[in-house]
Amino acid sequence: MSEVLLEVGRSAENVFYSFLGLIADTLGFTAKVDTKKEDVGEYFDSLGEKIGAVSLERLSEKAPAGVDKDGVLNKTIKEAVDGSKKVLSTLKGHLKSLGQVGDSNVVGYAHNAKGQGTAPNDEQLKAMFNSLTGIVEIAKEVGLKELKVGSATLRATGGADNKEGAKILSTNNDPEADDVGKAAAILATVSG
């Protein structure tokens, strides 16, 4: 019996360390001025692949089948594994959706030709928003506290203000060449 429980403990430990690796990768990504949009997409793809690699099946297979007479421990482990698989599958789907975002332009790129701003891709923005909302919902369902809206204003190095960098999003005004740099500087300031 003790050997079986040790094996269950080792399996749980492996799952735990797989999750730690996933979290470390999540916290380790930073968009810089030269980061391409497709790099962000590839990053989310790799997170989805890592979630797929987390194998909870081994834990449920090694659950002690004959240890307790009523099978309560085995049933509890199986239910926990099944619930976790459902959450991970949903999370993987959201990350896969985010992985389809981007092109070969840097994150702060905006077309700055006179009379032409950069129009957003509404369909892609909606898909990203829905995926991010889904990830937040999963986090709330598993007990994480909901984020609170802050009132901090970001200022990039060199004094670029958010409203100056946002000029690149205008489709009816003429963004100037240095507006792109301001937007990139603001993006590079955001981390976490």
Automatic annotation (TrEMBL):
Q: Entry's Pfam families? A: Lipoprotein_2
Where does the signal peptide begin and end?
none
Q: Report if keyword rRNA-binding is assigned.
A: no
Question: What UniProt keywords apply to this chain's record, in alphabetical order?
Answer: Cell outer membrane, Lipoprotein, Membrane, Palmitate, Plasmid, Signal
InterPro entries associated with the record: Borrelia_lipo (IPR000680)
What is the topology of this protein in the membrane according to its UniProt annotation? Lipid-anchor
Protein location: Cell outer membrane
- Functional summary from the UniProt entry: The Vlp and Vsp proteins are antigenically distinct proteins, only one vlp or vsp gene is transcriptionally active at any one time. Switching between these genes is a mechanism of host immune response evasion.
Annotated protein name in UniProt: Variable large protein
The organism's lineage is: Bacteria, Pseudomonadati, Spirochaetota, Spirochaetia, Spirochaetales
